[in-house]
Design brief:
Elements: H1 2-32, H2 39-55, H3 61-88, H4 99-120, E1 136-139, E2 142-145, H5 146-168, H6 170-180, H7 182-187, H8 192-214, H9 226-239, H10 244-264, H11 273-284
Antiparallel strand pairs: 1-2
Helix pairs in contact: 1-5, 1-8, 1-9, 1-10, 2-3, 2-8, 2-9, 3-8, 5-6, 5-8, 6-8, 9-10, 9-11
Length: 297
């Protein structure tokens, strides 16, 4: 029973980190119907921003966390304005835009950011300081890493806040309207360009925070965002393309499943488990957990 609880709790904690990454990616797809291949680099920027500002500038880790979030949001808005907006501004329907342009732009941006950080900061990894001094915390029979517990609490707060924001706030309702019908929402007086900027800001902020929260647990390096991005793609497909709630559920399920797979099947192939799940989902239920059958033309 103790092992079961340990695996479940640790899996849920990892699932929360996955959710922070995947939700932003799912929101971008839900609004623009594109896949942002530079999403993993938001994670990388957040990890570096947290580690370097806290270590090199001596800033309090909690304040460095806020700076990382602000940096991710700023990067998201900048990318949307400079690279994504020219692809759709002036069109009445997003479907007119050639999807391959967005794929090339985001993939090129991913390569640029990786090599830019490698040349400017260097290939050597950095480990950010922990948000808490306590290394291990006992919760009943389970011993957990202090940083993981704090990071999990922050992740839960952010995801709950995002859910309330989408459901209750005016901007959240505008986001839902633009996701359903971009042209129709513009006729109703909603500015789809501003809504898209908000989406990219939220996406960048969540991914950067995920990187910052994990910076004390892994060494940030220029290519550190590649693997979290792959996890995000798996979760978005598993949850249903464009479904925020589906992505949250899928992230938790994947985290717990990987935890049990590592112990009872193979630790070496733990990270490949998500790819096995992806193949199975594409064969058995291509629309994902919360997605709908059909294809937009």
């Amino acid at each position: 029973m103790s092992l079961f609880l340990d695996l479940t709790i640790n899996g849920l904690i990892m699932g929360l980190f996955y959710a922070l990454m995947a939700v932003g990616l799912s929101m971008i797809f839900g609004i623009l119907r594109i896949v942002n291949f530079a999403h993993g680099e938001f994670f990388m920027v957040g990890a570096y921003a947290y580690a370097l500002t806290a270590m090199k500038l001596g800033i309090n880790p909690w304040f460095a966390l806020l700076l990382a979030a602000a940096g991710g949001a700023f990067l998201g808005v900048t990318i949307e304005k400079l690279l994504m907006r020219p692809l759709y501004q002036g069109y009445q329907s997003w479907s007119i835009v050639k999807d391959e342009y967005a794929v090339v732009v985001t993939f090129a941006l991913s390569l640029f950011l990786i090599h830019f950080v490698d040349k400017v900061i260097g290939p050597s990894p950095f480990m950010g300081p922990s948000l808490v001094s306590t290394q291990r915390i006992a919760i009943g029979p389970i011993m957990l890493n202090g940083q993981k517990i704090i990071a999990a609490g922050i992740s839960i707060s952010l995801l709950c806040g995002l859910a309330l924001f989408i459901k209750k706030s005016l901007w959240g309702r505008q986001i839902q309207a633009v996701a359903q019908n971009r042209f129709g929402s513009s006729l109703a007086g909603i500015d789809p360009v501003r809504t898209t900027s908000i989406i990219f800001a939220i996406s960048g902020m969540l991914a950067a925070l995920s990187g910052a929260l994990l910076a004390p647990l892994m060494n940030p390096a220029p290519d550190i965002g590649s693997f979290p991005a792959i996890k995000s793609f798996i979760i978005v497909v598993l949850g249903g393309m464009g479904s925020i709630w589906g992505s949250m559920i899928a992230a938790l399920l994947l985290g717990v499943s990987e935890s049990f797979f590592a112990v009872y099947v193979s630790y070496d192939y733990r990270d490949a488990f998500g790819l096995f799940v992806l193949v199975a989902v594409l064969i058995l239920r291509p629309q994902g957990l919360a997605g709908q059958k059909g294809r937009q033309s």
